[in-house]
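Customer escalation, tier 2.

The customer says the design service returned an amino acid string that "doesn't look like it belongs to this structure." They asked us to rerun it and document both sides in this ticket. The original structure tokens are below, unchanged.
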């Protein structure tokens, strides 16, 4: 499968990642990517940056080391309504938003409550991606999730980090089997994300790509294949 982009990544601004923005982009360029996106954690994540970090992206070059650069945020879902932890005026300044549940920022609820939280986040016009919907400790109704993603024109992520040995998200592989089967049924698109916290993993989707190959997932439902495919979801790429 053609894979030219990675937009779920973290720099030292997230507080628990280990390389600078320039180091991350250089590593992605070395992997032959066309587009790189930086998506540091929003402020509710312990140790992450101040909200003002997200208001000055105009200072950053939009091409580095020969590849295109976009700047987003991994927003933390904070309640069962799908609200996130960055002020709306700052969300508007982002190139894109990934909304994710992290147990450090969210009280894990029932399957119905967790699913409602993700669907509520999809209704936010500044959220284009749901991050790592794969953790068995955060149970989800995958049929409702996949149908809602199609309805709200939001991408579901297949998170490479979740599939690596030692991942803190149990059951990810089995949950992706379920999610991808439903994505095929409802024609719902996905995006591969490295969720990299160091330069060695920037642009790395080996485990996620192998899983898609294993289940023979349709390439036309994977937006990593082209900027045009991603641009159907991210205005900044059109």
């Amino acid at each position: 499968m053609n894979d030219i982009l990675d937009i779920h990544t973290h720099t030292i601004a997230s507080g628990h990642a280990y390389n600078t923005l320039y180091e991350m982009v250089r590593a992605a360029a070395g992997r032959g990517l066309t587009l790189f996106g930086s998506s540091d954690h929003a402020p509710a994540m312990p140790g992450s940056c101040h909200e003002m970090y997200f208001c000055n992206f105009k200072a950053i070059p939009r091409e580095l080391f020969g590849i295109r650069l976009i700047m987003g945020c991994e927003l933390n879902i904070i309640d069962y309504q799908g609200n996130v932890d960055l002020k709306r005026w700052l969300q508007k300044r982002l190139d894109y938003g990934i909304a994710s549940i992290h147990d450090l920022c969210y009280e894990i609820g029932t399957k119905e409550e967790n699913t409602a939280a993700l669907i509520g986040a999809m209704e936010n016009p500044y959220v284009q991606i749901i991050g790592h919907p794969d953790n068995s400790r955060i149970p989800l109704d995958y049929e409702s999730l996949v149908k809602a993603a199609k309805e709200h024109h939001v991408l579901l992520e297949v998170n490479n980090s979740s599939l690596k040995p030692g991942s803190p998200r149990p059951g990810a592989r089995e949950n992706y089997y379920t999610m991808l089967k439903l994505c095929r049924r409802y024609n719902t698109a996905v995006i591969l994300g490295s969720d990299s916290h160091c330069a060695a993993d920037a642009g790395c989707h080996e485990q996620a790509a192998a899983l898609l190959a294993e289940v023979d997932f349709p390439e036309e439902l994977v937006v990593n294949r082209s900027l045009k495919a991603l641009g159907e979801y991210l205005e900044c790429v059109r």
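Tier 2 assessment: The sequence is consistent with the input. The chain has eight helices and eight strands. Strands lie at 5-6, 35-38, 63-64, 67-76, 96-100, 129-130, 155-159, 190-193. Sent an explanation to the customer and offered a walkthrough call.
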